Known about the structure:
By secondary structure, the chain is α/β, with parallel strands linked by helices.
Amino acid sequence: MNKKGLLEKEVLSLLTKAKQRDTSYDKVLSSMCTKPHPIAIKAHMQFISSNMGDFGLFQGTKELEEEVIQMMGSMLGDANACGYLTTGGTESNIQALRTARNIKNKNHPNMVVPNSSHFSFDKIADLLGIEMRKASMDREFKADIDSVANLIDQNTIALVGIAGSTEFGQIDPIDKLAELALSNDLFFHVDAAFGGFVIPFLDKKYDFDFSVKGVTSMTSDPHKMGMSTIPAGGLLFKDKACLLPLEIDTPYLTIRKQHSLTGTRSGAAVAATYAVMKHMGQDGYRKIVKKCMKMTDTLVQGTRKLGVKPLIEPVMNIVALDVPELDEVRKKLRAKGWITSITRNPRAMRIIVMPHMNETSIELFISDLELCL
Ligand code: PLP
């Protein structure tokens, strides 16, 4: 740090230069985050100093959070669900499995997750000392129920199902997993970090949420398809008792107990999420999802004409394309400014069609892909 501070305009100029080196979202096809809605940005700025780590001081923001949780709960099949806004899917998944571990209280606990699970579950295994057992996937990249059943033993504490898998955008058979969880007396967490703000607004209906008996907790992230600001994740429990194993005493704060993983917590992201959900309403999100699904359709139809097929028919706005010479093609696309990512097994080009794209940019991507093949 300098001994003497810089002028504001000097600092702002440094920031502008740094921002220029950041990638703008316009040609980013690899991100599950997007440009936040303008109203979310306004609300974020208005609540920039609110700290939910000591929400006794920020009663107004706390009430916004309660309403957000109620709105998310009713979107996800239970208006009475409880929970809080986290830093993202990773924290929500950690906290859900922490609850499961503390409630089940086994000496050598294990959890059964589908092979398609996000790498946050590797962190959970390491942090919480829970053995991770990975179930195989069926041909459509959904968790294979027989494989899950075979991995359950007397030390299993939890099953995990994914509603909107990171790589394929696939939805596991949540109802069948829930039956397995109920019959084995297991905690059942549904990771809908991405799908939580997509699946309720798709034309096709899926049983994936608290309306399925046996689902105990859910992750759903406003900072992904919810179009809120970062860091806004959501953790919801069916039963209020699930928050108790997370609670610790906070003797020197204005509140007596805290159940979040982080101490200091962004009230700005809470306000942003409240603002965007209130402003968009169900109709607004349905419109966004419709737009993304239409672009997904344009993409798949266009690439098919080039002889490039998706590994599965897209369930949501995530596409895995079977591109030949994948690394070479991605490199050439990168030179044209396009950022794509990959699926691991099988290897394919992974594309997330987010609200920051439009039909024209999708058409441009298809013509650039043709040149790169
Ligand atoms: N779960 C799923 C299914 C995800 O796709 C992701 C992120 O891509 C996460 C969890 C982790 O979310 P975050 O990066 O917000 O911690």
